[in-house]
Design a protein that fits this description.
Largest sheet: 3 strands, parallel
CATH class of the largest domain: Alpha Beta
Oligomer: single chain
Bound molecules: tryptophan, iron/sulfur cluster
Keywords: Aminoacyl-tRNA synthetase, ATP-binding, Ligase, Nucleotide-binding, Protein biosynthesis
Catalytic activity: tRNA(Trp) + L-tryptophan + ATP = L-tryptophyl-tRNA(Trp) + AMP + diphosphate + H(+)
Protein name: Tryptophan--tRNA ligase
Order of helices and strands: EHEHHEHHHHHEHHHHHEHHHHH
InterPro entries: aa-tRNA-synth_I_CS, aa-tRNA-synth_Ic, Rossmann-like_a/b/a_fold, Trp-tRNA-ligase, Trp-tRNA_synthetase
Structural class: mainly alpha
Shape: elongated
Helix content: 55-70%
Strand content: 5-15%
EC number: 6.1.1.2
Distance between the termini: 28 Å
Radius of gyration: 25 Å
Number of strands: 5
Number of domains: 3
CATH superfamily of the largest domain: HUPs
Length: about 400
Amino acid sequence: MYPDRVVSGMRPTGSMHLGHFHGALKNWIKMQSEHPCLFFVADWHALTTHYDDPAIIERSVWEMLVDWLAAGVDPSQATLFIQSKVPEHAELHLLLSMATPLGWLERVPTYKDQVENLANKDLSTYGFLGYPLLQAADVLIYRASLVPVGEDQVPHIEMMREIARRFNHLYGKEKGFEEKSIEAVKKLGSKRAKLYLELRTEYQQEGRDDALDQAHAMLDEAQNLSNIDRERLFGYLEGSRKLILVEPHAKLTAASRLPGLDGRKMSKSYGNAIALREDKDSVTKKIRTMPTDPARVRRTDVGDPLKCPVWQLHEVYSSNATREWVVKGCTTAGIGCLECKQPVIDAVIAEQEPMHERAQQYLDDPTLVRAIVADGCDKARKLAQETMRDVREAMGLSYS
Ligand code: TRP
Ligand code: SF4
């Protein structure tokens, strides 16, 4: 019914580093040529944890957009925008909040963890509790089917699905839905109509998802259907309700986690990060001074790559041949650590070179980024408004 839209966001809470590139951006860049993609700067989300330090958000927004563009996010393929410029997200969040049980939010696993982990901040706020619901609004408002997220966010997607289902159940009633649906089935033509009804039965009585998928594909292709009828028939497949919001699926990032300079997760707050557009000399210096296997004190001591954070970078950046050279050289003291680090330095610099090049035009002319985002906000807003029209109508809010 709706194109396989992809929605994802990132919080602007500091500059981007190579961990973000390998953990998320690479995946976005891959998806942008396969699906219609909407990528947004989640500034409201950043406020849920940084409400006491909004300056960092303001500073990070444009820098983050330049980083995305530098990394290869292509504005001619993907729609880039800023969450707060599409206030419909907030309206949907509010409306969804009316029928969302508190327990659903309290049960999100990241909730209690984060309140405890970030104990230096008071996160017992209304906004922080509601954060996964705001995230649900971000996705549902575009009727997106795919959300690229990390493993830790899968429960959020599960909750979005429950929210969409509950919404459709509560508000998807339409007077005479059954009759209108039967009329719409007839419009499919007798052959298709028969197939549709068979698939519906298979799905409803045997729970076969493949039947549902096949029916969806058939409806997508049926050209003589109006959008309203198509929507009804999607709803009629699953029950006797109209589908207003679409249940999204998590698209797991093939976890290529890049460790930081000390072997822990790369994070700006650990001081172990390489910025996305770090300059060459600084990259070289940072890697040259990285800790290695602590047992390898002298050049003549043998080492164990498994105890060395440099090895973890080889695992991301080096070919098999280089890795064999490392293992052999390290365990026999045949190579020195600086020698061992050089291929990693070269690979990181090579990876960053096109990023520096792409960033340059945006740094030279900041109005380019402003224009890309203005255009993206317009596009996103139009899509959001379409959904909100249906949502308001379903909830009895379209007075006229
Ligand atoms: N939760 C994401 C993060 O912490 C950001 C985000 C906000 C998001 N809304 C989203 C991601 C919607 C995917 C879809 O970085
Ligand atoms: Fe680490 Fe390489 Fe030194 Fe071995 S040779 S300890 S893998 S830096």
